[in-house]
What we know:
The chain has one helix at about 1-15. The protein is mainly α. It is elongated and about 25 Å long. The chain starts with a helix and ends in a 7-residue tail after the last helix. About 0% of the residues are buried.
Amino acid sequence: MIMSLLNDVQKFIEAHPGCTSG
């Protein structure tokens, strides 16, 4: 369950680099 969520989050971060920056 959590793994699936992490995968989704990783995909989002990869699609939006810099979103987690600051």
